[in-house]
Design brief:
Number of helices: 7
CATH class of the largest domain: Alpha Beta
Distance between the termini: 21 Å
Largest sheet: 6 strands, mixed
Radius of gyration: 19 Å
CATH topology of the largest domain: Nucleotidyltransferase, domain 5
Number of strands: 11
Strand order of the largest sheet: 6-9-8-7-10-11
Number of domains: 2
Shape: globular
CATH superfamily of the largest domain: ATPase, nucleotide binding domain
Helix content: 25-40%
Strand content: 25-35%
Structural class: alpha/beta
């Protein structure tokens, strides 16, 4: 059976997957993708169509990479794949956020889903059981917070996240930064989840993105832990759903 090539170009990484219907046959993450990577994939799999979502304006680059090799579709705001998008300015909605809620809707139909994507930024998006999407929230990501403290002060060091840190406060500069950033994100996550649970629906909490495992660690002892699902390929799955249901 012929396969589908799905490419998600984010702020930091390029993620590529090959799907056979809804099954992932291959996936990879790259800092940059070139014709060699694509050609190797096309040798290994019989790809009959491809979809690209990009937060960057580099369509010409990908047209050159895939030129005459496979029919290519660019994911856009009009490809809602069964959901109803109530965002006031759909053309300005991040395509990764749209793809993520489409992925949630198709993975868990008839369920209310809150998508928390931990990447360069943290995004919070909610889609109800009927497929209505009204919008969400964007805040600085984990690494962005550490870098901001270092970049915008003269005395604070640049440190890295520590999944083993469990203190409520710090007793030196390093632990104080760990507490502020990681506890801050934990309380932010819990606050957003609580606010959406007040809608009264049973809620799936879907963690995706590069920091999804770390966020799961932050929430492992919370009352929300039983509702958490980790979907590291959620955006790719949403893009696959979009191209499978595209009527163009």
């Amino acid at each position: 059976m012929e396969a589908t090539l799905v490419i998600d170009i984010g702020n930091t990484y390029i993620k590529i997957a090959v799907f056979k219907q809804n099954q992932i046959l291959h996936s990879g993450q790259y800092q940059q993708a070139d014709s060699t990577i694509i050609n190797n994939i096309l040798v290994d799999y019989v790809v009959n169509k491809a979809i690209i979502s990009s937060v960057k304006k580099n369509k010409e680059e990908w047209q050159n990479v895939l030129a005459d090799k496979v029919p290519l579709i660019y994911f856009n705001a009009g490809m809602t794949s069964g959901i109803t998008n109530h965002y006031l300015t759909p053309q300005t909605l991040g395509l990764d956020r749209l793809a993520a809620v489409i992925g949630a809707y198709h993975l868990y139909p008839g369920k209310s889903n809150m998508v928390i994507d931990g990447g360069t930024c943290i995004t919070y998006d909610w889609i109800d059981a009927a497929g209505n999407y009204f919008g969400g929230s964007i805040s600085p990501g984990l690494n962005m917070r550490y870098k901001a403290l270092n970049n915008y002060t003269s005395g604070l060091p640049l440190i890295s996240a520590d999944e083993n840190f469990a203190g409520k406060s710090g007793n030196d500069t390093t632990s104080a930064i760990l507490s502020g950033v990681q506890n801050g994100i934990k309380y932010e996550l819990e606050g957003f989840i609580e606010s959406y649970k007040m809608n009264g629906e049973e809620l799936n909490i879907i963690l995706s993105g590069g920091d999804s495992i770390f966020f799961d660690t932050l929430l492992k002892n919370s009352i929300f832990a039983p509702y958490i699902k980790i979907e590291p390929h959620l955006v790719l799955k949403g893009l696959n759903a979009a191209i499978q249901t595209n009527n163009d």
